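User: My instructor asked us to take a sequence, write out its structure as tokens, and then describe one feature of it. I'm not sure where to start. Here is the sequence I was given:
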Amino acid sequence: MATLYPCEAITMVPHDKETPTFTYDLATERDALRATKRYRKIPAKTASKVLTATWNLTNFGFQKRTDNDLALMAEVMSWFDLISIQEIADDLTTLGALMGHLGAKYKVVLSDTAGNDERAGFLYNSRKLERLEVAAEVAVPPSAHRHIRMKGVSGSFSGFDRNPYLVAFRSKNLTFIAVSAHLFFGSHSYKDEDRRALEAYALARWASLKNKGAGAYSENILIMGDLNLPKKDDSSPVFRALKKKGLMLPEHSTQIGSSLKDDKDYDQIMFHAGGMKKAYTGKSGVFDFDRAPFFSSAWSRSEAYFGKTLKRHIADHRPLWAEELCPNVVYGRFRRRSCLV
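Assistant: Let's start with the prediction itself. The structure tokens for your sequence are:
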């Protein structure tokens, strides 16, 4: 009899539908999003900079959304050049509809499905970013599992629930490996948080080896995703694990969490000292699409109805963004192994 692994037994669970069904005017809600963009001072796109973001799209392709919902999500994504995305279903029909709203210049690259039967990957502006030859899943060989351990953290590392997905990109002289990650959550129990911390340490260790490796493809590593980090301080073993190998988690301007439910710091953008730190302009923040006046008629009904409507029609995570320079000089070491593009 075949072994049934947890990642094969569990799938995404859609949020409950609001009652009564919420309807809205697309132009009004798009204007509300743009007003919050101005309020949060998200920079305009320029030729000399890359705007990156990460967004857990919440049961995307599994939970039903309207075409207007997808248009609103595409509005937010269109402000950025590279978007790390998580919780993408195996069925890509809904993603195809979203791409239709973004236009032909946006391309997508995705991992295979894993834990919760979900994919991760990237949407990117192909006029700003050249996708290079490297695209793979981050994996730790079994022989290295013994190195994934932390003082005060129980259990042992036996692999990622969902292997982080990496793709190499270049914009002018900035070449980097972007990683889209969705670390294990499970529950709030200490056992599951320890498992999450070991995954975080495994990812941080992998990034450190690539950042320092003499023969590595690129030392510029940009990790973006839903790391299920409850709090960005040393009280969290996940935070300690990420920092242990030198990853930097920059403070952002908004000082609010990315989780709608409890304002946790789940989603992060991280890098090491070196090329990516030089490229980072210091501008980053959480985009709180749930800020008034967005979906104001839902809020006027009740706070509970508003929350349910947001999670069902848009997402239960807020996007996190950061700005990087496209320098006139090369930032960081880069070794191109072949002529493949």
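For the description part of your assignment, you could build on this observation: The two ends are 43 Å apart (CA to CA). Try explaining in your own words what that tells you about the chain.
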